[in-house]
Amino acid sequence: MAHKIAIVTDSTAYIPDALNRQYNIHVVPQVLVWEQKTYRDGVDIKPADFYQRQLATTTHPTTSQATVKDFKEAFEAAAKQADSILTIVLSSDLSGAYNSAVQAMDGFGPQKIELIDSRMISMALGYLVLAAARAAADGASMADCAQLVRSRIPHAGVIITPITLEYLHRSGRISGTKRLLGTALNVKPILELVDGKLHPSGQVRTTKKAQQHLVETVAAKLQSAKRFRVAAVHANAPENAQEMLALLCEKCQPLEALVADVSPTVGCHTGPGTTGLAWSIED
User: With a threshold of 0.85, does the pTM exceed it?
Assistant: First the structure.
């Protein structure tokens, strides 16, 4: 039986595949360009393969937004199953995917499409998408699903730490001098999503201390929350992610706790070994 509401998102959410299949979520791939070849995130290249290659080469990939064509194809597939399509994408301050979706919507019909700029990325986006998908599966209306997502955006977030400054330097995010100094001191930057953009929120020496800092930071944010979901995200560092998630769950009791990949379109700037925590409060 066809769902009345279909959910579309982009690949930076990296919701675990089993959940994408369970709720029939349509995922539009972001784009990587590496050595003059174009790859669709999660389609032509998978995270593990991307990060292994990133370690083995000095050439730096670049990113491009999900294409209008790919959004149109996702809308067409969703339209075969639903009367309405709710599309939730990563922050428009981090990518032009939102603009691609707007262009793909032009002239599309007769299904209604509603587009939401989540202001999020990674599993902070993923949990918003899952909230909508679960509400739709329970029979909620399009308006109710959209309102649910918008109401939770201010109460979601993500914080990450790369294990090296090298890839931030390669992508032009920091200077060569700062990279050399940070590497000499074994400094690990802390980056937090604020107002739709990733901002430096501190720095810690050693990876272990950085990961402990992330756990303590997120636990403090969730201290007064009653209902929330968390995820540990990683760039080919599943054991570190599992350890962080276990430590966080010792400090709080989430409704759901997942481990997910960091999209290569994010990891090309932060590098393999990056770990982070995402959360979504539902109070």
Answer: yes
